[in-house]
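User: Can you recover a sequence for this backbone? Please restate the input before giving your answer.

Assistant: Of course. Working from this structure:
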């Protein structure tokens, strides 16, 4: 199974990802600083998008992030909104 490579947002115009025989690198176009090598293009992009000031952790699932934020995993079938901490009993 292959992983989809995320599209790069427009605000990342200051970076470039290149592939070399020893791995993938990303380059900050403003400073010219080079980061890598990474085993895959996806790993280079994840590192490029990493912000030490954020709570994002590479490889974190949506469910794990929602749990950290306290977002309910139950969706109200009538409104389509997340439940407010209420989990209906399982059938």
């Amino acid at each position: 199974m292959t992983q989809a490579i995320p599209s790069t947002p427009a605000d990342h115009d200051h970076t470039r990802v290149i592939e070399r025989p020893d791995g993938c690198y990303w380059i900050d176009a403003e400073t010219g600083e080079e980061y890598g090598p990474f085993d895959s293009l996806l790993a280079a992009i994840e590192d490029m998008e990493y912000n030490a000031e954020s709570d994002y952790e590479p490889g974190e699932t949506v469910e794990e992030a929602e749990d950290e934020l306290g977002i309910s995993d139950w969706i109200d079938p009538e409104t389509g909104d997340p439940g407010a901490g209420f989990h209906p009993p399982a059938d």
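That completes the design. DSSP finds two helices and three strands in the chain.
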